[in-house]
Amino acid sequence: MSETWTFVCPTGELLPGEMRTTFDEVTGTPIIVLNLDGDLYALEDQCSHEDFGLSGGGEFDTGAGTIECVLHGAKFDVRDGRALCAPAYEPVAKFPTKVEHGGVWTRDDRD
To answer: Where is the Rieske domain (predicted)?
Structure first.
């Protein structure tokens, strides 16, 4: 588990409907941070169905609060990471976010 928070971007660079990617500095985990109507959510940037980044062309649907993997169409709820349709059945990891010192931060908090 990483106790070190990773800087994602200045708060003004992650507006509602936008997403940014980063890597946890300690664990090397790819993380995608999404702004859903002003609320920030962070998920592991990897589809649970296949080793493919959700940020790699995936569609962030702000109306439904989902992100879709462009590879096979699996969808995940950005609020909790749960899989919403086949071919994914397992959730993607969800991580904490915080806004501090004018920036957006996240970390891999898994044990």
So the answer is: 6-106
For the entire predicted model, the pTM comes to 0.95
Picking from 84, 59, 80, the residue whose alpha carbon sits closest to that of residue 69 is 59
Would you say domain 6-101 falls under CATH 3.30.70.100? no
DSSP letter at 11 equals: G
**How many Å apart are CA 44 and CA 5, to the nearest integer?**
15
Asked if omega into 91 is within 30° of 0 (cis), the reply is no
In percent, how much of the chain has pLDDT > 70?
98
- Whether residue 96 is preceded by a cis peptide bond, meaning omega within 30 degrees of 0, is no
Mean pLDDT of 57-78: 96
Domain boundaries defined on the chain:
6-101
The whole-number pLDDT of residue 25 equals 85
Q: Please give the order of strands across the beta sheet that includes 103-106.
A: 6-10, 103-106, 97-100
